[in-house]
Structure formats: C-alpha cells, structure tokens
Amino acid sequence: MDENTNLLKNFIQRIIEEDISAGKNSGRVVTRFPPEPNGYLHIGHAKSICLNFGLARQYGGVTHLRFDDTNPEKEEVEYIESIKTDVKWLGFDWGDKMFFASDYFDKLYEYALVLIKKGLAYVDTLDAEKTREYRGTLTEPGKESPDRNRTVDENLELFEKMRNGDFKEGDCVLRAKIDMASPNLNMRDPVIYRIKFAHHHRTGDKWCIYPMYDYAHALSDAIEGITHSICTLEFEDHRPLYDWVVREADAPCRPQQIEFARLNLTYVVMSKRKLLRLVKEGYVSGWDDPRMPTISGLRRRGYTPEAIREFAARIGVAKADSTVDYALLEYCLREDLNRNADRRMVVLDPLKVIIRNYPENKTEWLDGENNPEQPDGGGSRKIPFSREIFIEREDFMIDPPKKYFRLSPGNEIRLKHAYYVKCVDYKTDGSGNVTEVICEYDPKSRGGWSEDGRKVKGTSHWVSAADAVECEVRLYSTLFIKPDPEEGGEFVHNINPSSLQIIEKALAEPSLAEARPGMRFQFLRQGYFCPDSLDSRDGRLVFNRTVTLKDTWGKISSRN
Ligand code: ATP
Ligand code: MG
Q: Which residues pair with 423 in a beta bridge?
C-alpha cells in the first residue's frame, strides 16, 4: 500500500491492518455492535453500525449483533425488533451472528467463580453509603472494605447464597479485588454482580443476581471471539478494567478495546434517555416521529440508507470529541435524492389562474421528465393541462419589486413542462387579496419553449384544477431552537414550538395519487418529500418534507 492511501485510512483501519500483517488473531477480524435494548437506535448508533459492519466487510471479517441485555429492568422486546429492523435497513447483515449477553449468564457466573477462586473477587456487605465513602476521590485513594479479605471458601459460599436468593437487594455485591488506591477509579474494586429480584425478558426468574456492564461486556466480547471491540471515548478509562477482566477470568480470547469519538450533531439530543423523555412527555408523536434523530424517525422522514452511510463515511472516525453540523447530514441526503428522486409538481398554497385563450373543456396530456439527473431523464410521466390551473400564491404579485421574475401584470413566465403564459388581469376580494389571475398562453410554446426563442426569466410549477389530487403536507424544522439543545440547562426548554407545520390541503399533480410509502420525490421548488409510512394510504395522501432544496432551485432556473 502506498503512503497516500495509508494517510486516508482512519486510525482504526491502521490498527486492524497492523494486526493482520502481524498475524494477530490469525488474521481474523470480528467486530460487534452491542446495543442495549432500552430504546430505539439513533443516528449516533448508525455511525457505530457503519463503522463496525464496514470494517468487517472491508477486511473480510464478520460483525456480531449482540443485545447487551444485562439490565433486566430496562429492556423491552419492542426495542429488540426495532434494532434489528434498523440495522437491516441501513444495509447490514449479521447473518447467524445474533447474540444476547443474557445467553452468557451461566458462563459469566462461572467466570465469577474463577475470579473468586483466584482470590480476585469478594462478596462485600458494605452498605451503599459506606461504599461511596470508601471509594475515595480523584485526589484521595480509597479505603479497603472490611470484607475484602474474606477467605475464598467464605466468598464462594456467600456468592452462592446471593445466587440462591438468600439475601435481599442491596445486602451485598460481588466486587473485583483490584486496587483501592488506583488513580483510576474504575479499578477500585468495581462491583461485578449485584442482587436484583427482577424478571428478565429471556431468562425469566432464573437469576436474582445480574452482572455489571464492564464485567459482562468484556467477557461477552471474549466469549464470542471478538477481535476488535470498538466503543466510544467515555470507555477509555474503563479499558484497564476490560483488560483485567478478560485476563484474570482466563477468558478464551483477548479482544482489543479501541475507542473513538461519539457522534454529536447540532440541533440534536443523542441519548436514548433524553429521546425517551421526548416520547414519554409527548413532545413528539413517538420514537419514529419524523423530527426524531432515531433511525426509524429518519426513515419515516424519507432519509435513505445510502445517505446515512455516506454521512458516516464523510464524518470518519477520530479520537477527539466534536460536534458535526446537521447541514452535513442534509447535504449527503440531498446529493442522494437529487440523483434518485423523481420530480413532481405540488402546489402548497394554491392561487387560481384562468388561461382565457385556452379552450374550455380541453385537457392536454403533456410530458414531464422524471429526473434530469438521470441519463434518459429518468423516463417521463403525463401531466394534464387545462384552462384552469393553480400556481403557488407567492408566484404572483400585483406590484412586484425589481428582480421579481414570476407572474405579475404584463409579465410572462413559463409553466414548467407546459406553456408560456402572460398575466393580463387579476381579481381581488373585498380586502384586496388576489383571488384569481387571468393569463393568456402562447400556443407556440408547448413543452415550455417558445418557437421564436423568446426568453422568460421565471418558471412556475402548477397543477390542473380539474385533475389535481388533494394531499396533506407536513413541513418540519429542527426540534430545538438552539444548535446546542442543552444550552441553558434543560433541553426541553429549547424545544422549537413550530417544528411541524401542517398544510392540510395542498394540490398535487395526479400521478402522485400512486405515491406509496417508500417512494421519494422532489416537489419542484419545495424540496424532497415522501409519503408518510403511517398516515398515507389509499384515499389519503400525506407527504413529509424530507429536506428543503436549498440551492437546487438556482440550478434549475439557470438551466431553463
Ligand atoms: P445512549 O447514550 O444514546 O443511550 P448508549 O451508548 O448507551 O447510547 P448503547 O445501546 O449502549 O447506547 O450503544 C450501542 C453502541 O452504539 C455502543 O457501542 C456505543 O458506543 C455506540 N454509540 C452510542 N451512541 C453513539 C454516538 N453518539 N456515536 C457513536 N457511537 C455511539
Ligand atoms: Mg449504554
């Protein structure tokens, strides 16, 4: 490999390549994605999924999907199903490598016995307050518990009693015996088992002791033969404990923990706990609300897996925390949708236009190319044109400022895919609101191009009044008003009160009557839209705006 390609690799790829060339793990690469099934996955998890599955794919390895279900009280089956759906939707496949940490409860118990027998774990009866006090601080060493020097036999007996339910919750814990004076607080005899009389979604009431995260996670990795255990930076200080656990428990393999910076995004809260609050307290309609940064929310909003994978590739992996601008995610999305979404015309705020020199009762079916970004224009659809149409209210002004190129008295514009029309009159109601615009069309400009080469500066989208289909359109903006939703303390205080705007009656060209969830469109000048997967069905069309076009309109008008 030459120097340049090496520079483009991220630090994890370099570690893996060094391991492969050194023959470590016999050249195998086994990664895992270990979600705790206590919520829906979010865009931060997508980064981790793309990284773990991407590395395995790149180096001919495999990735395990492991549910970290060691906390019996929090996990729910609904979350497990949603996680599987989301990982698959992102385009990744764990094959037959789906595991649950709870599958290892027996083995984890055995490993605890190994530690006890080696004199490296003990049952501690110190109460919670004392435990905290004995732990010490960053500047002061901890104090040893009086129980620390129990004999192995005593510990074995007490641990078995813990397991048999002879103690109450909080009576005692099993702790690793490491070093109460360690400068790393994680190494000051961390708890590895606690008592919890809780029903587990997979093991039922078999257990009343449950392993702690650091212990269970490290050993689950080792049991599965994970070679590279990739996690976020906050676990850096836990790495010595991770290594200690796999080494001292005599686990069959020694996975290498590698930390990277978690994804933070502007205008987004990225913690399941906080997302759960948004759901529970009704700030959003559910985990899949299109304003949520969850994978299911993004999917319902119209994001594509390709765009999310591209985003993950662009942000890369680093060793230092930073916050990515939401605009980058939207940029990746627009790139994908611009290439792949068919164009359609929908008028969000309709204003009637009568084309007075066009025959009454006539309908012409015009051709509209689906997508100018595709080699053959992406094929075309038929669009009906008739005497009475609707345009966007903002596309007409009685008294326009300079540089307003849309319709105004005496001004001529192009109706996209149709004809040139010139405004010859208009009507208003009692309060001066325009109720109708009267135009004349140039029959020699069919398709939107004049025979004499006459140019117009404005192009409007439109729908035929008799043929348009009604639809509901939902426009979204950020869920928070501050780039840092935590600014000022409580993120719920920074909720954007107008993050959802509903247009109950927009008018769409009739081909959109066929729109079904999973399809994506560009509505000319309005952005990218998709039918809502929950509310859009036969007889009721509901579109979510996925993202605005931003500068795309500029491109369209310069081409015209
Ligand atoms: P949260 O704080 O949102 O609840 P978590 O880390 O507790 O997230 P887990 O289910 O434990 O959620 O995470 C599964 C995997 O996803 C972990 O390996 C974790 O490191 C990774 N992950 C979680 N959040 C992010 C993020 N923002 N960026 C990158 N990876 C993340
Ligand atoms: Mg977690």
A: 439
For atom 1 of ligand 1, the residue with the nearest CA is: 271
Write the pLDDT tens digit of every residue in 282-309. Answer: 999 999 999 999 999 999 999 999 999 9
Sheet containing 459-460, strands listed edge to edge, beginning at the edge strand earlier in sequence: 459-460, 412-415, 420-428, 434-442, 350-355, 388-392, 462-464
Q: Say if ligand 1 is within 6 A of residue 270 CB.
A: yes
Judged by its nearest atom, the ligand closest to the C-alpha of residue 35 is 1
User: Could you read off the pLDDT of 69-78 as tens digits, one per residue?
Assistant: 999 887 688 9
Strand-pairing partners, residue 322, are: 263
**Angstrom distance (rounded) from CA 441 to CA 463:** 15
pLDDT in tens, 341-391: 999 999 999 999 999 999 999 999 999 999 999 999 999 999 999 999 999
Q: How far apart are the first and last CA of the chain?
A: 47
Give 178-224 pLDDT, tens digit per residue: 999 999 999 999 999 999 999 999 999 999 999 999 999 999 999 99
Helix axes 77-89, 43-58, angle to 10 degrees: 60
Half-sphere exposure of 343 (CA within 13 A, CB side): 26
Q: What kind of architecture, by CATH, is found in domain 272-342+471-559?
A: Beta Barrel (2.40)
Per the structure block, which two tokens stand in for 470? Answer: 């009604």
Q: Is the CB of 36 under 6 A from ligand 1?
A: yes
Q: Which token pair is 283? A: 């700030």
Query: How many Cα atoms within 13 Å fall on the side-chain side of residue 330?
Result: 18
* Closest atom of ligand 1 to CA, residue 273: 4
Between helices 305-315 and 43-58, what is the axis angle to 10°?
Answer: 80
Say how far apart CA 459 and CA 448 lie, in whole Å: 9
Per the model's pLDDT, the better-predicted residue between 3 and 412 turns out to be 412
Q: What share of the chain is helix, strand, coil (3-state, %, to 5)?
A: 35, 25, 40
86 pocket-lining for ligand 1 (C-beta < 6 Å): no
58 Cα to the center of ligand 2, angstroms: 26
Centre of ligand 2 to C-alpha 272, Å, is 9
Residues of each domain in the chain carrying CATH 3.40.50.620:
10-262
CA-only gyration radius of the chain, Å:
31
Cβ of 232 closer than 6 Å to ligand 1, yes or no, is yes
Write the residue with the smallest CA distance to atom 10 of ligand 1: 35
Residue 350 near ligand 1, beta carbon < 6 Å: no
Tell me whether residue 298 is exposed, middle or buried, using C-beta atoms within 10 angstroms of its C-beta: 0 to 12, 13 to 18, 19 or more. Answer: buried
Is the pTM above the cut of 0.90? yes
**Distance, CA 34 to ligand 2 centroid (Å)?**
9
Is 10-262 a domain of CATH 3.40.50.620? yes
Domain covering 346-461 in this structure, CATH number: 2.40.240.10
Q: Does the beta carbon of 46 sit less than 6 angstroms from any atom of ligand 1?
A: no
Atom of ligand 1 nearest to the CA of 270: 3
